[in-house]
């Protein structure tokens, strides 16, 4: 059994299948009187049949993510601000490349999978040399890569299927050196995001199955966070900024997926969703924008989005 645990929104995706999608209209924030801006929305190569998932953006507006092509192969992509596309294909896993993060140098990080093999293979792509570097935690059966900062520090989680329950630890990787993160007594510790301070954020799962979010600062300070939105549902971590704010998925009162923005200085959660869609799943934020994807209630095809943070916060 594959007991690898992924992000909250990834498990939502798995539950709904590959034929997901998202085509967004306007954003509805918790402040109904706020001015709302139209988000950028797109599908890879402007093909309405390609389910497309966005995870990060660099300072010039290039968005990174992955899509499923007509053969249901997962391919990473870069989309420039003017709408140009480039595939990102990890040579070790040519039919399943999941590009998850990009920094301002244009370097990219993610993971790949081999069909029929229970495992994941992390990688880092250097834009200047156009070369991939494998990131595989020693002795782990799977290495997932989800985060990357402007110092080229990569973050993710590794999984060890030593028994029927499995075990996982968070990690960062810098120039070939791993640093590991484990919340005491946790069955899984997973890191989803890293900021330019070197702080990491993620979640951990107790042996009982209970899940909690955390921020682990570069100075070693750990804060366990279980922030909830106005519907008393927990806000998940997906993207982290230098202020310690994070964005991620959460639920409304009917357990429909929506976005939540957690502001660290006030401990306030602002929830939001895109009108006309059953799910809104933010996956990262950078340069004043929130990046993500969602599910169109009518078409069922996933579409990526970029929306100004000001639309969510109402200012």
From TrEMBL:
Signal peptide location: 1-29
Keyword annotations of the record: Signal
Protein name: WG repeat-containing protein
Organism: Ideonella azotifigens
